[in-house]
Here is the input.
Amino acid sequence: MRAFSRLALAFLVLVACDTAGRVIVWGLSLPVPGTVVGILILLAAIVALRRVPEPLKEMVEFLLAHLNFFYIPAGVGVMAYAALLADDLWPILIALFASTFLAMFAAGLAFQVVARFTGGKGDGA
Amino acid sequence: MSDIGIKLIYWDRVLEAGFWILLTLFFYYLALRIQRALGGTPLANPVLLASAPIIALLSAADIWVGDYQMGGQALIWLLGPATVGLAVPLYRNFARVRSALVPMAVSLVVGSAVAVLSAVLIGDAMGASLETVRSLAPKSVTTPIAMGIAEEIGGYASLTAAFVIITGIIGAVFGAMFFNFCRISDARARGFAMGIAAHGIGTARAFQEDEVSGTFSGVAMALNGIVTALILPLLWLAFAG
Here is the structure.
């Protein structure tokens, strides 16, 4: 029970950081998503603590391992635009596939080549 | 509470939302089982494997997708707190990230430019309508930012939302195979490129592979969102406005 309440507290910390981030972004009308500011708030808190509390670590590892779950409603949402997509189906599919591959290639190659020259330590897979 | 004449909680709606959440959980569980049975291959993407049967079910039963989203909205809201958790791997890999600032900056500039320009040019060359091309431009950026950009440059935010999800699934499904094919082997480069091209769904996949890739993917997703939101509308006004 105690472990459970600590995990619940860790979850509330995540909700609080996210909410604080959203409020700050809304209040200052910043051009970034509130969640990004939320990440920075939590990062600052962890840096101040100098360690990641165990329940927070467990909760975050669980959520990040299952991040896909939270994207399912967005996937289902694509259905709502099926008719709009059908108008330009082939141009859309070809553009999305080709552009995604090109962006992965350009970003990945740029990173790898520059990392070789700047001497950063690579983590070969 | 009905005795005071005001309904404080619409229990029927809470129940319905709960039903859709449980259904989503059920199909997610099935999707994970299938993915694990296939050796964890990215080809069996959980977002795709779980949303396809839900779409089929809603169509077959003639249920409006908005009804489903009563539960879906709750999960989409939870995406915020879940994503905030990125701070933890970011802290653990801070030295790694800091030592890669130069490659990250170059990759960010090159990657975000290619992501936008290639989508616009290919869509236009294939004969897509102007509105479709405008909606394609921010497709590699995380949904809320992409929708805002689409509106600013005269696209349809809702269409963009669909493009963003399809893009994320393409990156998550084919990314690892494609990186192998292109001999991009550095886990940091693979993660960062995944985050640039395929935002959160790519990041979700990257975390299924390893924490270094996931961390760099999350950082790339955040940076690409900010950079694209700041620069794309200006460029659009300068060249196409």
